Amino acid sequence: MPDPEGMFGIFGGRFVAETLMPLILDLQAEWDKAKTDPDFQAELQHLNAHYTGRPSPLYFAERLTEHLGGAKIYFKRDELNHTGSHKINNCLGQILLAKRMGKTRIIAETGAGQHGVASATVAARFGFPCEVYMGATDVERQAPNVFRMKLLGAKVHPVTAGHGTLKDAMNEALRDWVTNVDDTYYLIGTAAGPHPYPEMVRDFQSVIGTETKEQMLAAEGRLPDMLVAAVGGGSNAIGLFHPFLDDESVEIVGVEAGGKGLDGEEHCASLTAGSPGVLHGNRTYLLQNGDGQITEGHSISAGLDYPGIGPEHSWLKETGRVEYVPIMDNEALEAFQLLTRLEGIIPALEPSHALAEIVKRAPTMDKDQIIVMNLCGRGDKDVFTVGKMLGFDLS
Amino acid sequence: MSQTRIDRRFVKLREEGRPALVTYFMAGDPDIETSNAVIAALTKSGADIIELGMPFSDPMADGPTIQTAGQRALAGGQTLPKTLDVARQFRKSDDETPIVLMGYYNPIYVYGVERFLADAKAAGIDGLIVVDLPPEMDEELCIPARQAGLNFIRLATPTTDEKRLPKVLTNTSGFVYYVSMTGITGSSLATDTRGVSEAVARIKAHTDLPVCVGFGVKTEEQARAIGVAADGVVVGSAIVSAIAAANSPEGAADAVSTLVGSLARGCAAARIPVGA
User: Fold this and answer.
1) Is the pLDDT of residue B215 over 70?
2) pLDDT, tens digit (0-9, with 9 covering 90-100), for A350-395
3) Residue B57 falls within a domain, yes or no?
4) Given this model, what pLDDT does residue B276 score?
5) Assuming Cys at both sites, which of A128, B4, B111, B264 could form a disulfide with A123, CB separation 3.0 to 4.6 Å?
6) Residue B251: which CATH number?
7) Is some CB atom of chain B closer than 8 A to the CB atom of A279?
8) Residues of B with CB under 8 A from a CB of A
9) Where is the active site (chain B) (predicted)?
10) A336 to each of A72, A113, A262, A348, how far by Cα in Å?
11) 8-state DSSP, A77
12) How confident is the model at residue A10 (pLDDT cuts 50, 70, 90)?
């Protein structure tokens, strides 16, 4: 748990303009009430079950396990959720809060478009107008998701400020919020931003880890030996990890986007190759230069393309509870194809990074050991990117 | 803490019976030569306090005008040490005009707070405005800055209510910067300035510090209208736009002189009743 100022050690906090401070304090007060309100929890649970399709299955990947010849591999299948990823878990929780707070307008930022689609979905379900900020570069490379958002009634604003990627979209969403303080709810998509967002988003995503624990005990009668998840902003990973943090026997691994390698600037490994700094309302590990200017990351996966990371991950790195490692674009691409062929599951490029790490580790482990990976998104959105990389003409 | 150039400047302005003209521009936009020319032109044409912008890659509270100014500065190789150099140069010829650094926390944090405060003080800086450090984060920079003898100037906004105002004012010194609207820098000022006068009065009920008002002030008329109630009028985006439109350091200095001259006339006329 963070301290009352929202700090996980030196990370986290509330580094925002004064205009936003009262809004963030209101949000925290409402969240503090909601988390202990049985009606709120019941409504969320009902939606999780009947709208999203929770609990998501815990699936034993038999052929992959056989292929790698080591530890047993299970997938937590959050890619089967409504809208195709874990993002909906958080969006449902936050839209219920927005409703409680009497807000009438939803804004969100998105990179790959998965959070934008999930936000537009819950906004449609609850009758809110929704505006999504998306970097102009991402609008171009994620056209199907842009169209989905529009179908769902959301307005998509291409952001040309800065370099037109996720961090610029987040800047622009914050500028909208600072302008429209009375009626607007900012639905942040990852476990980052000013307190209470990192804690709140983690709590909504922790349904992943809580279910995994129960399902694993039912399937194997014991806890897994290792958890693996991809980290961009880090919401799917913290959702899986958090309920296991006190279980010391469980080794935990977070996988960052190594892009084209950590030597140059074409990667998004803020934990393994960045340094602490302050951006978007919190202190955390960032990709930045010596003058404290934030640099642009690169990853084959638009969902990992963020130069920061949720502050709790920075804390877990510092305490050593979680090990963070990079996986390169080409390794993720190979893992993507491997899973598709062996298990008949097309994963998103984000969890393909986690899978690539398992490909390295599973063969070195005993056959009675167990790994759980969060399969946090499906790969439909990525077929064009992958097609292009593999030389298929899909146009 | 002892008196700073900011405190002394407001004593003088009170004697003269006029509001301060507080002028902002971005250090290093588009190069150091221009910044050196602009800062000299500002004081010559009537600016009372200089706000020196520190460029940041992700200026979350700024509109397009100041965003692009920051990008131009960074593209030109501007860094925090180079921004301090602008102040250091200026201090060789002017030891009275207060300089306030304005920007975001990360470049300061990465530079190192203690080292930054020592270097800023040595360069002749008098105060700091750091947009993303609300009173909840005072231990980070606000309190160390006061201990180092630098004013920490806080922003108060329309969302800062009566209950919160004392918290915002607690560790503030130098002056209070009232942001006249919710929104980003460079937006248009509401034509009705009565709300601003009421807000200034509301803040003054809680503090003896001067209250300066900014966000959206672009013309002599607006400066005059805001200056009726405010102890200072802050102009930023209009100056940044004038610099952006020029194509040489001399051109930028000329454009800034013309604009600031007219804003200074607005400030000078603010306390004189209309028709007198």
Assistant:
1) yes
2) 999 999 999 999 999 999 999 999 999 999 988 888 998 899 877 6
3) yes
4) 52
5) A128
6) 3.20.20.70
7) yes
8) 55-64, 67, 71, 74, 79-80, 104-111, 131-134, 136-137, 154-161, 164, 168, 179, 182-184, 187
9) 51, 62
10) 19, 19, 21, 8
11) -
12) very high
Is residue B276 in some structural domain?
no
CB contact under 8 A, A15 and B133: yes
Q: How far is B11 from chain A (nearest CA, A)?
A: 28
Interchain CB contacts (distance < 8 Å): A and B: 120
CB A162 to CB B74 under 8 A? no
DSSP assignment letter at A232: S
A122 Ramachandran zone, left/alpha/beta (phi>0; psi -120 to 50): alpha
pLDDT at A344: 98
pLDDT confidence band for B190 (50 / 70 / 90): low
CA-to-CA distance for A239 and B241, rounded, in angstroms?
46
Give per-residue pLDDT as tens, B104-147: 999 999 999 999 999 999 999 999 999 999 999 999 999 999 99
In sequence order, what are the beta bridge partners of A283?
A12, A278
Tell me which of B7, B29, B51, B231 is the catalytic residue.
B51
Q: Do A167 and B105 touch (CB under 8 A)?
A: no
In Å, how far from its chain's centre is CA A11? 18
The whole-number pLDDT of residue B39 equals 98
- The answer to the question of residue B33 being in a domain is yes
The three-class DSSP label of residue B175 is coil
- Chain B residues closer than 8 Å to A3 by CB: none
Beginning with the edge strand found earlier in the chain, give each strand of the sheet holding A184-186 in spatial order: A155-159, A130-135, A105-110, A184-186
Residue type, A301: S
Q: How big is chain B, counted in residues?
A: 276
Chain B closest CA to A251's CA: distance in Å? 32
Nearest to B155 among A18, A175, A281 (CB): A18
Residue-range definition of the domain harbouring residue B112: 5-269
Cβ–Cβ of B157/A19 closer than 8 Å?
yes
Of A19, A279, A288, the CB nearest to B179: A19
CB-neighbour burial class of residue B227 (10 A; exposed 0-12, middle 13-18, buried 19+): buried
Phi, psi values for residue A245, rounded to 5°: -60, -35
Over residues A168-189, the mean pLDDT reads 95
Q: Is A7 on the interface with B (CB under 8 A)?
A: no
Q: Indicate the number of domains in chain B.
A: 1
Q: pTM of this prediction?
A: 0.96
